[in-house]
Each structure stands twice: as C-alpha cells, then as structure tokens.
C-alpha cells in the first residue's frame, strides 16, 4: 500500500474551513442549550387574594386529581371564606423519593408534602412541623383520629395520615364457602377445615396464595398463634415475633398447608398482579386483601370474570384474635414544612378535608364522573370504582350513600373491629445493617421450612443463628425502648 | 455485501444446516415474547383475563387498546419529546464523539494517555444524582431539554468503540491527506467518517437507543410534565399500578372506555408502542454496516 | 548508522508536538470541556460519601462512617462475594456468546435471512427486567414449560427460581437471552467492515473457510473484543441491579444479593445518599483497578490495549 493520491480539494489549507467548523459547533452547542419547547408550564399567576399552597405529592398531576383540587379550593372557600390555590409540583412515582430529597436539599421546600418513606432524615433535621399543637386545637381532628393514630402521632408528630390501618383481611369466594356449607369461619380449626374441604372439592389448584412471603396471611393467622405484636412478651422480656414460640407453631402450620397443596407452592415468586390473576381465573379461592376499596375492586373484578363475589372473614381465633397495628410511626403521610409561612392555613385545609364536607369530596370524587345527583340522592357510577381519596380516608365518616360496596364494607368492619395496638419503635440507623441481615436470614429459613425443605426442628437452629447474627443486640435495645 | 468468500461452495452442508437451525431457534426465542405481548395487546376485553404467556392467537381481536393509548395526549407529547431529544442529542453525540475519537487515535499526541485515563475514569465513577442535579441548576438548565441532551453528550464507551473503527482506516491515507494540505476537520469528515461508516452507524444506534430509553434523569431534570419523554409517561402508568390515574383524563370525556381497557392489555400495548420506532429505525442503520468504500485508493 | 541529530529529529520535542497538533487540540477541546463540566465538576460533590447530609447549613464531615456501616454488616462479605461470582459467571459464560453469534450470522449466505435475523435478535434487549423476570418465572416455574419438558423425559421437577444451586444460572441464561443479540451488533459491524479484498486475496491463495475465519476475521476483530472486554471490567462490581432486583425472591436472597441491592435496601430506600455514594466509590475503585491492570497486561501480551 503505497501513498495513495487523493484528489486535491483546491486552495484549502486547513485553517479557515476548520475554524468555521468549530464556530458552527460552538453555535450548535449554544443553540441546544438554549432551546426550550414552547409551552413550558409557567406557574399560574396567583389570583388577587388566593393564597398559593405549594404541594408535592406522588402522581398528583392527572386530570381527575386536578379537578378534585379545584373542587377542594371551592369548598374550602365556601366553608371558611378563604381563597386558596394549589400549586402542584409534579412528580412521577418512579423518582418520587429521590426528587423529594433533591428538592429539600436544594432548599425548595413545598408547604404541604406527602411522604412515603424517607421522612426520618427530614424530621431529624427540623424541616417538618410538629403537628400536635394544631391537632389538639382541632375538634374535627379529634373526632377523626383513631387510637392508633394518636399513638403514632405521640411517637412521631410529623406525619398525618388519616386512614384505616392497612390490614389484610381474608376474602374467600362465596361459592366455595357455600359449597362447604358455611357462611363464615372463625377459629383456627374452622379455617383449616374450610381450606381442606375446598382443596378436596378442587384438588387441581391451591386454596390460598400470598405475594413473595407470608406477610398477608400473617395478618389473619398471627394472633391465633400468640403473635400479638411485633415484640411479644415471653418469660418476662420482649422477643421479636419472628423468633418467638408462636412463630415456630405458625411455621409448622404453614408447612402443613404447603405440603397439602393448600398454600400455593409458588407463592414465593408471585407478585401482586400474579395473585390477582390467579383469583380472577379461578386458580385460587382465598386471598388476603387490604380492607375497604381494594376488597371492593377485587370483588367487582371477580364478579366480572367468575360470576361470584367475595366474602370477608374475621382473623383466625386461637390463642388470641386480632390484627396487630403498629404504633411506631406512620409509614406515610402528610407533613407541613417547618419553613412554611402559611402553616396554620395549610393545617386548616387538612382539617377541612377531614370534615364532613371535605370527606364528601374525598370519598365521592367528581360529580358527573364518579357520581350523579338524582334529585337529592347521590348515585354512584361504575367509574367510582376507579376513584380513591387523595388526602384522608376518615374511618368515622358516613356519607349519604354507602361509600363502599358489600365486600368493602364487610372487610372494613372486620378490620375496625379486630385491630389492636402494637407498641413498636423504629430501628435506629446504627442497627440497620444488622437488621437487614436478620431479615435476610429470616426470609431464607422461613421459606425453606414452609416449603418443607427444612424440617420444623431446624427452627431452633434459625433462632440461634438469629441471635448470634446480632439479634441479641437488637433485642436488648428493644427491651430498653419498651420499658 | 454479499459474502464473496463462499463462491464456488456447495449450497447445502451439514454444518450449514446446523447453523441455520440454531439461528432460527435463536431468532424465534427472541421474537416470541414480543409477539406474545402483541397478541395480548390485541385481545378483546372479554378474553383478556385468560390471556397469558402461551396465548398465540388474540381472541376477540380489537384495536381499541391501541387506539385508546394513542389518542391520549400525554403519549403524543411524550413521543414528541423523545424524538426531539433524540434528534438533537444525536447531533451533539456524533459530532463530539467523532471529534474526540479522531484526535485521540493519534498515538503520538502529547498527553494522549492522560486524556484517555481521565475519560475512562468518568466512565466508572459517577458523582451521583445530587451533585449532578446541583450542576444543572447552577448552569440554569433545569427543566430545559438541554439538560437531558447534554448530560451524556459523550459516552466514553462509545468513544473508544469509535476509536477502534477509526483505527481501522489505513494511517497512510490520513498522512497522505495531511501532506496534501487537508485540514484536520476536512480529513475527519471527508475521509475518516466515510471509511468507517459502520462505526458511525453503530454508535448512532447506541446513542439513539440510549436517548430512546431515557427515563430516570429526565424525571429528575425536567419538572414540567409537558416535557417528559415517552418512557416516563409509559412507566408512570405501569409502575404506579393505577390505570385510573392514567385513563382518568380520557374518561373525563368519554365514559365507559375504562372498562373496555384492561390493565394487562394496556401494559402490553405500551410495550409494543415503545419498541415499534426502534424496529423501524434499526434497518435503516443496518444498511450502513458495510465496509467503507475505499474507492481505489489502496491499489498498490 | 544514523547521526545523532537525525535520531533527535524523529521524536520532536514536546513543544513542537503541541504546536504541530494544535488544530487537533482545538478539535478535542469541546469534548474535554464536556467531561470537565459534566463529570469532573460534580465529582467534587461525591465527597458526600464522607459526610452526613444536612438540609440546613453545611454538611458534616464524618470520615469513614458510611464505609464502616457498609463494611461492618455481617453480610457484606457475602454480598461482595455474590457480586464477584455472578459477574465472573457472566464473563465466562455470557461474554463469548455474542461474538459467536456474530460469526454464525456472518456465515449465513442468504441475504434476506441474514437481514431478518439481524432485525430481530436485538429485540429482547428492549424489554425491561420487570417483564423478563415475569417471563422467566413463568417459564421456569414447577408447572412451567421447562419443567414440563423435564418431567416428560422422566426427570424430576427443578424449582429453578427458588433453588440456590440453579438461580445464578438462571441469571446467566436470562442475561444471554436478553443481550446476546444486542451485544452482537457491535461485532457484526466490526466483521462487516473488513474489506472484501482481504478475503479475495485469501481465496486466491487457497484458504479454506475455517482458515479465513481464523486468519482474517478473528485477528481483525480481536482488538474490538479486547476493548469491550476490558471496558466491561470497569463495571465488574455492578452485576446487574435491575435483573437481580426483579428476579430475586426470599428463597434465594442470600445467594444473589449483590452490593447494589444491599445498598438499595439499607441506603437508598431511606434516602441515605451518602451511603450509596460511598458504595459507588468503592465499586468504582475496584473497576478502575481492573481496567488499568488488564489493560497493562493486554499491552504486554498483544500490544493492544483499550485504546
């Protein structure tokens, strides 16, 4: 390969065309950095008197929510004479925690913030307002708060979350229930008999399933085995529920269910949509649903696909009966920024939303879409199944028409009746790595015992390992806290 | 680019058959899941609950899911944004990466090792979300398309790949051009790039896909929803698990459609929509996977 | 025998070289500027790995506190090992396959078939791991397709997704399925850019197909292969967060927990960015050492490095 002769370009010597090129390049870079699409969402100019409330929440930017916020603004003005305007900082779920943290770090703190985890750092550094003084003054709040709400606020007064405690209530297909000749079950034994007979009648499929672990079914079965709280008292001191004596018996029970094909053998790899799929295609008879709206959704879906409804069942009664509701702190909720110049106003809005007028808007949604007025009566539309309250779901509220469907109301009642307090505390940062290791150990052993790979006798081995791995450290910390 | 080295061989041979079989099975394994998603997206609402991974033919075939998704303004805006970002992004990417690769393949460039090491370091070490965010803020680029276009203007990995392709061009050609008095930029654009067109095509594809899949950073840097790219719009639905929030607007106008659009079908339709443009774009790039035209310059 | 001042002339002085290449430096300038602004300036922000973040006021320097939290966990060693094992398995069993596929595709005579192949093999790459995890879980479940085949041929059901001895292989195989096509694109492009003249000359010389592959194709794309290999070593400690996160379950968590999933649980979920940054630096240093050392090794052996 010799020196190839390339045709000469002409007079160009390399200086000017290159400089021109570079200039174009620079221009291009400058251009791209100043291009911005038309229609950048400008902050709407505040009306003359309306006070702007900056609000940051997850997925608040769809049309329904925006219309709902307008309704709230109107209703609030009618109730209090004050004009407000919500200014939503749009944030998609996928990056909510990160975005929120970034906002806070860069000094942009909205007035009203929805937290779903990650609030400890914020509260520790004094960014969030202590809500207790406001709550004490408010009659509406006093009426709306349940005992466990009060406990949680005492422990951690920065988040307000008026909603029923999220427990999972057992719901079973009404046809299978009827087949077994029952209208409900209560004791642990009755539960077992029911599940056995369903299995006998429909051997091809499991009876119950869960999602990745047994957290859902635990709600129904924990108390029956004496697991009445996160930390249970054994021999005078507190023991973590996973390593308690009750846990051993519960695991033996689950192991039996798994072996007999009652518990879905693939529960460990099932996700929430897989669980729902199984329910709607008749591959499972009983699931554990969040009470209220979710139960209603499951009910209407299964009506569509299988032509039957769901019946809610109380928690299993054994040593005890109930659903433990942790009072450590709210895991999510609304906070008011400490730096806000309109704290009282923002709280007033929250208060309004907990009042009857506010709850009407929250629970019923948008007129014409989720309900229609026939004369003076409120009639809900089909669409109402797709609506949920954006701020509060006050348990004590009773609207003009039932807010929930049959399954929803039944599960709601059960949840309300059987929920009991569970004194608990958040794990401190120093112990978080240890705690994570303990969780992982538990996950592995629990699954292997339930699936029968390990005999139940290896539970003791697990408990020993648990304590060795740092469990005794946490336990002594717990006993200090719970004094 | 016909494979000339097979001239004169018999058509059928055992190794050939095996190879073909293997490739066909590979191709099928690759295509099937997407085909399955397409089937689900076309399944009518009455049959959707029963549709699963083994469903081969859509029952109650309907275009309503696709229609519903495509008629939603958010999706269109997302599509426009992604195209916009991709177009401008590609210009910046190709120009900068070409410039960099062209300069850095010169082995006796003073400081070359230092530059390369520094660049590779950036490939491995990321400062993290927070410092990046503050940088964008200080540059005044928050909520501007430029932030998403520029934050990865040059990908060191792709830069090095392009350097490999550029390195395949005979140095004698470049040297000769220099001697003849060509300017460096002219050499780059008139000689280097045309002779390594496969390399340019490759990194164009890579950068293009990168922009197309852009998701996390754009959620962080772009606060105005009107600017969110397609992937963000799509994930907002699938991840948040609440179709009502997404469909909500649609039904504000026409009720009853929500019931007809099942979540499963919706997810499938969105997956298909996200892939179709790439399916269309890729064959265009494929055309350039050829050896660069040497046009008689390497005869001797 | 060359005279001394002639030898001097063959390597110009530094100043002379810089002046000679001044246009090149100008061309390189925007690229360097980019890296400087968008990468090196924020790097200063990575110091939060050694700080506690404060919303108001200055961050507090806490030295190695986060590293202590990271390394002190009883499971850190296991998590570290998992990461190394999974990455190594992927290098050994996944890395060569896209290359092999590129060669296979190149062997296809039919233009149409080859084009079709190339147009579909990359598709799985665009499915998110959420979707792929679902696919594989269904496929490999005790009642799924694979186990049906196994039992049909008289074998015993294998619980792939919950078995410690199989789960890592599931990761490798699913990675293969997802990326073999996409990763082969680069090699296909490299193979295609080999001028036909080279093959023509070889055929004239009587070379067989195998010889053509080993004497022409392979050596020419070898530098590309080495480059890709070494560059990917920089990401050795990553091991694929998305994949692991979506495919892991309680049964196998201790076997597949990698650094990133661990950090996600105890750090990111709580908003502890410092911890995540510290872990990132740690991974990065290892990756950098791997790249630089294999690069040096490669240069010694074959004269070719990453660049």
Query: Over all CA atoms, what is the radius of gyration of chain A?
Result: 28 Å
What is the H/E string of chain B? HHHHHHHHHHHHHHH
Count of strand segments of chain A = 13
Structure class of chain A:
alpha/beta
pLDDT averaged over residues of chain A = 85
Major pleated sheet of chain A: 4 strands, mixed
The N- and C-terminal alpha carbons of chain B lie at a distance of 23 Å
What is the name of the CATH architecture of the domain at 51-164 and 330-422 in chain A?
3-Layer(aba) Sandwich
Report the span from N to C terminus of chain A: 89 Å
Largest sheet of chain B, in brief, is:
none
Helical content of chain B (DSSP H or I, runs of 4+):
55-70%
Strand order of the largest sheet of chain A: 2-1-3-10
The fraction of residues assigned to DSSP E strands of chain B is under 5%
Question: How does the helix and strand content of chain B classify structurally?
Answer: mainly alpha
Radius of gyration of chain B: 24 Å
Fourth-tier CATH superfamily name of the domain at 84-197 in chain B: MetI-like
Output the CATH class name of the domain at 51-164 and 330-422 in chain A: Alpha Beta
Quick recap:
The complex is a heterotrimer of chains A (483), B (300) and C (307). By secondary structure, chain A is α/β, with parallel strands linked by helices. Among the domains of chain A are: 51-164 and 330-422, D-Maltodextrin-Binding Protein, domain 2; 168-290, Periplasmic binding protein-like II (D-Maltodextrin-Binding Protein, domain 2, 3-Layer(aba) Sandwich), CATH 3.40.190.10.
What does this structure look like?
The complex is a heterotrimer of chains A (about 475), B (about 300) and C (about 300). Chain A has 18 helices and 13 strands. Chain A is of the alpha/beta class. Among the domains of chain A are: about 50-165 and about 330-420, Periplasmic binding protein-like II (D-Maltodextrin-Binding Protein, domain 2), CATH 3.40.190; about 170-290, D-Maltodextrin-Binding Protein, domain 2, CATH 3.40.190.10. Chain A has a 4-stranded mixed beta sheet with strand order 2-1-3-10. The model of chain A is unreliable at about 1-15 and about 30-45 (pLDDT under 50). Chain B starts with 13 loop residues before the first helix and ends in a 14-residue tail after the last helix. Among the domains of chain B are: about 15-60, no CATH class; about 85-195, MetI-like (MetI-like fold, Orthogonal Bundle), CATH 1.10.3720.10. The model of chain B is unreliable at about 1-10, about 240-260 and about 295-300 (pLDDT under 50). Chain B contains 15 helices and no strands. Chain C is an all-alpha fold. Chain C folds into 2 domains: about 15-65, no CATH class; about 65-300, MetI-like (MetI-like fold, Orthogonal Bundle), CATH 1.10.3720.10. Chain C has helices at about 5-10, 15-20, 20-45, 65-70, 75-95, 95-105, 110-120, 130-140, 145-150, 165-190, 195-205, 210-235, 240-245, 255, 260-265, 275-300; strands at about 50, 60.
